[in-house]
Design brief:
Blueprint (H helix, E strand, L loop, with lengths): L6 E11 L2 E10 L5 E7 L6 E7 L2 H5 L7 H15 L1 E6 L9 H11 L5 H7 L10 H9 L4 E5 L3 H9 L3 E6 L10 H11 L23
Parallel strand pairs: 4-5, 4-6, 6-7
Antiparallel strand pairs: 1-2, 2-3, 3-5
Helix pairs in contact: 3-4
The protein binds guanosine-5'-triphosphate and zinc ion (ZN).
Cofactor: Zn(2+)
Keywords: GTP-binding, Hydrolase, Metal-binding, Nucleotide-binding, Riboflavin biosynthesis, Zinc
EC number: 3.5.4.25
């Protein structure tokens, strides 16, 4: 199946939010059945600011401090309301694609000392099971054949490129670091290649780059 048919447009309506007025377009992933939501500000053209945001119930609905998804979603909505663009909210990406129950199982294993990568692997699951064909298809449907991508994760840029959406700039989205998620954030930089400018170390207060800018 071609990428173009991976996202089926369903409906568009207005969505007033705390961050301002948006439009929401719903797309069904024709392979997984997941319903993804494009939250749109302005009249985005190629090169617009885009956030691919992976669903995280614990971080977004309950304010969990274990990750930074809630603050990232808020910051992305604020930036995109101001500059115009799209937050593409990707359902089925919960727990990096392993689902909510398995994410909670992974959290349980992390209480025994495993990090976020090894906990997934101990469950017999990939460290990251997400894919982005439907996301690219939805962007292309909206005319966004090139984007400025709000992310710290180069894998997302590479995935979009592979599916025919040019990433002309990666815009960092470093918010929501705290004492609870410090080790988790370090692991993302050290083991998953996330580009984080600061280790989050609270012991010396100095930035401690974990991944060179060229990586
Ligand atoms: N399996 C698993 N998933 C997690 C864990 N912590 C957060 N997540 C999920 O990870 C997803 C977000 O992925 P991240 O790796 O934090 O960040 P990213 O989306 O790849 O990168 P950014 O664009 O920079 O935010 C959300 O779906 C969360 O539910 C964890 O410990 N284990
Ligand atoms: Zn999260």
């Amino acid at each position: 199946m071609s990428d173009e048919s991976r996202a089926r447009f369903e409906v568009e309506t207005h969505l007033p939010t705390e961050h301002g007025e948006f439009r929401v377009r719903a797309y069904t992933d024709t392979v997984t059945g997941d319903l993804h939501l494009a939250i749109i500000s302005g009249d985005p053209k190629p090169g617009a600011l885009v956030r691919l945001h992976s669903e995280c119930l614990t971080g977004e609905a309950f304010g969990s401090l274990k990750c930074e998804c809630g603050p990232q979603l808020d910051a992305a909505l604020a930036a995109i309301h101001e500059q115009g663009g799209v937050v593409l909210y990707l359902r089925g990406h919960e727990g990096r694609g392993i689902g909510l129950l398995n994410k909670l199982r992974a959290y349980r294993l992390q209480e025994d000392g495993l990090d976020t990568v090894d906990a997934n692997l101990a469950l017999g699951l990939p460290a990251d099971a997400r894919e982005y064909a439907a996301a690219a298809s939805a962007l292309i449907d909206m005319g966004l054949t090139s984007v400025r991508l709000l992310t710290n994760n180069p894998a997302k840029s590479n995935a979009l490129t592979a599916h025919g959406v040019e990433v002309i700039e990666r815009v960092p989205l470093e918010v929501g670091r705290n004492a609870v998620n410090d080790a988790y954030m370090r692991t993302k930089a050290l083991r998953m290649g996330h580009l984080l400018s600061d280790s989050g170390s609270s012991d010396n207060g100095h930035p401690d780059p974990l991944v060179p800018p060229s990586a």
